[in-house]
């Protein structure tokens, strides 16, 4: 698996060590396989449910059986100031009395319960979605640690849930990998806040699986202080969202320059906002929100895409004179260039974009951040995690290479002669 | 006063607004008396504007804002698998 989560993955921020009482059975591996379920859930029960579209990618659909307020809503509990407990049955539950009875029979305080329909994905694609859950957000310290359980409804002998515990760096440790089989009736309990997890489902299309997220421990009503803290956090988060949205067009353009294609750019921007939204507490009020978002964008891009690319050094860039383009444009034959034609009209949007995009990442990122987005050397150095001197030298080389590319475009169109290096005025 | 070579060497840093006050003033005073250097500076300043405008002209897909806003309302990312 070439992609691997990085330190700035949002899951890393989710707490691992808290005072909550926990199940001894989960202490060792964070996972317990139960005996296969002997319940037979008739297919027409889960087929008749109302499935909701759910964010990133069209791979997963959820049919909520129990939610924070009984609405058919995939959203969790946290934006309503609740921890993931004390759920209410939705209208879907009436169509699947077997599952409802199964959940009730566990006898635990449960939060979200939903049937998940997962489209097939290969292991590498699935792995990119690996994460840990924030199950215990707002959960009072003296109440039981919230975990999740799964009941497989369909038979998928080739599919499994991939679990990994944390290494010392807080990232998934391959040495701890567990594969939980997903044959019909497979049942297990997972501490999904502790373990990184994702389902690998290469199987047949339209299989359906159910996961009932149950609490291992009795819950109670939230302490009122917790409740108001939660509401306050939600208000902040909404404020943050409102302030951050104005930068979406800039982030999208920058993402396009980075990824070269719309689908990846859209995903990159969405991921940037998700990370920003999740990490907004790390954003210090009064600092530059735009710079902060671009930093997330840049890091997300680098961590997600750059591993595919060979490292490029300055030696790989062709070198031209500092005033290469300037001299070239000055050399334009007046007969082919009308007096009022400006530099703006000389190059098309597509040419300028292509010239920037032609630069290797190492040089493109500083040029994009400085010349398009107007960030300072210091801000760029922080975003790219390199010294300021490196930013300056990459900018210099990147700008020249970009100018060379622009010159080539103009030459291709027959507008420019090639620049005469001896023509500049600045030789003495 | 800085000569043409020194002035042109600082062209990028000047346009990046990263020079010390002293260096910036030295450049300004040279440009005041050197139309050749001034023309080169003008060209690169204009080029910056052209690059910035043309590289930010992409139209955002109509559904992207909605996609992002939908995420804000939800609390887990790829969630639940």
Summarize it.
The complex is a heterodimer of chains A (428) and B (81). Chain A is an alpha+beta fold. Chain A has helices at 43-47, 97-106, 123-127, 224-244, 248-259, 262-278, 289-305, 324-330, 343-346, 349-357, 361-372, 377-384, 388-412; strands at residues 31-34, 52-53, 60-67, 88-89, 110-118, 148-151, 156-164, 178-182, 187-190, 196-200, 208-214.
Total strand segments of chain A:
11
Strand content of chain A: 5-15%
Question: What is the approximate shape of chain B?
Answer: elongated
Number of helices of chain A: 13
Q: Low-confidence runs of chain B (pLDDT<50, min 5 residues)?
A: 75-81
- On the 0-100 scale, what is the average pLDDT of chain B? 84
Describe the largest sheet of chain B.
Answer: none
- Class by SSE composition of chain B: mainly alpha
Topology order of chain A in helix (H) and strand (E) letters: EHEEEHEHEEEEEEHHHHHHHHHH
Describe this structure in words.
The complex is a heterodimer of chains A (about 425) and B (about 80). The longest helix of chain A is centred in the C-terminal third of the chain and has 25 residues, at about 390-410. Chain A is built from 13 helices and eleven strands. Chain A has about 425 residues and is of the alpha+beta class. In chain A, the strands form three sheets. In chain A, strands 2, 3, 4, 5 and 11 form a five-stranded antiparallel β-sheet that branches. Chain B has about 80 residues and is mainly α. Chain B is built from five helices and no strands. Chain B has helices spanning about 5-10, 10-15, 20-35, 35-55, 60-75. The longest helix of chain B is centred in the middle third of the chain and has 20 residues, at about 35-55. Chain B is elongated, with a radius of gyration of 22 Å. The model of chain B is unreliable at about 75-80 (pLDDT under 50). The interface between A and B is large, with 77 and 46 residues.
